[in-house]
From TrEMBL:
<dbReference type="InterPro" id="IPR025737">
    <property type="entry name" value="FApF"/>
</dbReference>
<keyword id="KW-0732">Signal</keyword>
<dbReference type="Pfam" id="PF13557">
    <property type="entry name" value="Phenol_MetA_deg"/>
</dbReference>
<protein>
    <submittedName>
        <fullName>Uncharacterized conserved protein</fullName>
    </submittedName>
</protein>
<feature type="signal peptide">
    <location>
        <begin position="1"/>
        <end position="21"/>
    </location>
</feature>
């Protein structure tokens, strides 16, 4: 099982539709997307490919998006990320070193009331790419650690005159640490993946989303040699409020907590080099942020 490293590194841009904190009441952090199974454990040396699919549906009473105050927002989005990671055998700083990134494509739809008029739109386009310039893995017994940086570039489709956008039109830098305890004899895993995300200003709207703390957590138990069942969740809190002349609803800070079931499968026929994972996370608490459901479906292969 140690040859498996399915790290859903994403921080994908969700469509800029809809509550109060963060522009559009969402950000470049996607709950539940930073890990599924053994996120702190290093892959074997060589290339790793993953396809991570993210689905979201939620509602908010109001939000600022594209420079307008929107009310009664309903939003849904689907993203498919094509992710690559190359792992070197030679150690760096005492651990295994890797670099990588992802390219997302997405579809988003929304409906909202703007200026008393109901409006709905949808869009399919390229999203904001993510770059992982440095990733380090260390292991000691049953404890495994992965520390990396993620840069999200505003390459996605964005139009200020459109009510829904796949790209978010600002840069983000995310500092992430994945911490895993795994007992291979009992097949039990506990992992937490905290991160701190810093955002630049959206120059088109003059809106700057505040600094965000996020943490994904997961418990997985192998019920057979190849199947693990789990409970996954996340916690999110804005450490600083939104700012800029475009923050029409003021200095708000968002927070949210979600939890749900997960399953992973490692086909025996592939020798552990292939893995599939699926999860569903439901918001049990949300303040000044979109509230809804998140689902992930991922595939990874170690070459």
């Amino acid at each position: 099982m140690r040859l498996l490293k399915l790290s859903l590194l994403l921080s994908s841009a969700l469509a800029q539709t809809s509550a109060q904190a963060a522009e559009g009441a969402f950000s470049n952090y996607f709950p539940g997307a930073y890990g599924s199974l053994l996120p702190g454990m290093a892959p074997e040396p060589g290339p790793v490919f993953a396809n991570v699919n993210l689905l979201y549906s939620g509602k908010a009473s109001r939000a600022v998006g594209e420079g307008q105050v929107k009310a009664s927002v309903e939003s849904s989005a689907f993203y498919s990320l094509f992710q690559g990671l190359h792992v070197w055998d030679a150690p760096e700083l005492g651990g295994r070193f890797a670099v990588g990134g992802y390219i997302p494509v997405g579809y988003a739809s929304y409906s909202a009331t703007v200026g008393g008029l109901a409006n709905s739109q949808d869009e399919f386009a390229l999203g904001d790419i993510g770059i992982i310039p440095a990733s380090f893995y260390w292991s000691s017994g049953n404890f495994h650690t992965n520390i990396y940086g993620l840069i999200i570039a505003p390459t996605g489709e964005y139009n200020l005159n459109s009510g829904v956008n796949i790209g978010r039109n600002y840069w983000s830098a995310d500092l992430v640490a994945a911490l895993t305890w795994f007992n291979p004899e009992k097949g039990t895993e506990f992992s937490v993946v905290p991160g701190l995300m810093f955002n630049s200003k959206n120059e088109d709207t003059q809106y700057k989303t505040g600094t965000e703390f996020h943490m994904d957590f997961m418990f997985n138990q192998f019920v057979s040699e190849n199947v693990a069942l789990g409970i996954h969740g996340y916690a999110y809190k804005q450490l600083t409020g939104d700012s800029g002349s475009g923050a029409l609803l003021g200095d708000f800070k968002g927070e949210a907590v979600g939890i749900g079931p997960a399953i992973s499968w490692i086909p025996k026929s592939a020798g552990g080099a292939v893995a599939f994972s699926a999860s569903w996370v439901h918001d049990v608490h949300s303040k000044n942020r979109l509230s809804g459901d998140y689902a992930t479906l991922s595939f990874s292969i170690q070459f």
